[in-house]
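In response to reviewer comment 3 from the previous cycle, which asked for concrete evidence that the modeling workflow produces usable outputs, we include below a single protein chain processed end to end. The sequence was submitted unchanged, and the resulting structure tokens are shown without manual editing.
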Amino acid sequence: MRTPDRGRPWRLSAILLLAFSTAACVPFESLWRKEPKPPPPLAEPVAAPEAPLAEATHHFVVEKDSDLVGRVQVTIARHEDTLPDLARRFNIGYEEIVRANPGVDPWLPGEGTRVTLPTRFVLPDAPREGLVINLAAMRLFYYPPRKDKAAPLEVVTHPIGIGKVGWSTPEGRTKIVSKVKDPSWTPPASVRKEHAENGDPLPAKVPPGPDNPLGRHMMRLGWPSYLMHGTNKPYGVGMRVSHGCIRLYPEDISQVFDDIPVGTTVTVVNQPYLLGWQQDVLYVQAYGPLDDDERNWEHGPAGLRKKGAKSKSPLWKRIVAADTAINWDRAREVAEEPSGIPLAVSRGHEGSLPVVLAAAPEVRNALPSGATWDGNENQYEDEGEFRELLSERDPAARDTAVR
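The workflow returned the following structure tokens.
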């Protein structure tokens, strides 16, 4: 017969006591509820995508039956930028960028300022061949010759500096008669006199190099004493600063010098109000007349209607045929506040500058794709090249009397 286990009641009591103690230390519901998982770490903020590079600002294909090329763009200024800095970066002239950005300080736009890039153009009312220069716009347009007439028409455009008041660049038709690389400069007597009176005497002859106002490239026109050339002061491009010659940024004249052959026709016009079609809509691009333009521009582009009615140009034939579909009052309003931005004036399509600017794409504050400039300020990288040049040749052989 088994002897009863007298220790069993004690062990049972110990187990019950332990269970009670454990339950007293742990919340009752925790016996079945799982601990929540910790929240995932916060995701790193996603940076806004970088704005794209600007579209080409100087080389365009002209669409069939269109008089406009390019598009208006905007960029954001950095704290160190000036409007002249941005103008050169995007192949725009000084007056162009200032006109398109009223109220913006040219020398201190300010960090984060939206800057309008007026890179849409109405082509001048002139034959689309050779080189066409519009003085009022301070811009040239070059139409490269087409080997195949069926090929699309292309145009290359650059800002220019022109003659100041009293030294106007002439209008009319001429041609490129010669080209010179690294020219020397013999200032004419009239220019030397002016500089002497201003306390800035000029030498009788300026050799090639950083002090030469012609820069590294010079193209002589058929008009005696008038040239197209580069400059050693690029921030004067887009202004009236010369004695009648046509100035380009160093990088632009380098390209033009290589691409435009001797004998190319040059047509110089003075059109402060440009009218042009895109599809069935007429646009007006207003620059305003030059200070010494003595023509009556009281009615802006509307004042051209009578002259246009007698014109044989395809542009004006089309405008005359569509006269009733054009809002000439709106055209006059555009002319009264010249922005250099093309605006539509056809009835039912009238353009508003705020709407156009709001729709303009924002582009990166950097050199555009395919830009002529590489950002290098020094066009004379190898000074030894010029010392050698001067020692090996007779400078008189490259002299030119210019204005």
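The first strand starts at residue 59 and ends at 62. We consider this sufficient to address the reviewer's concern, and the full set will be provided in the supplementary archive.
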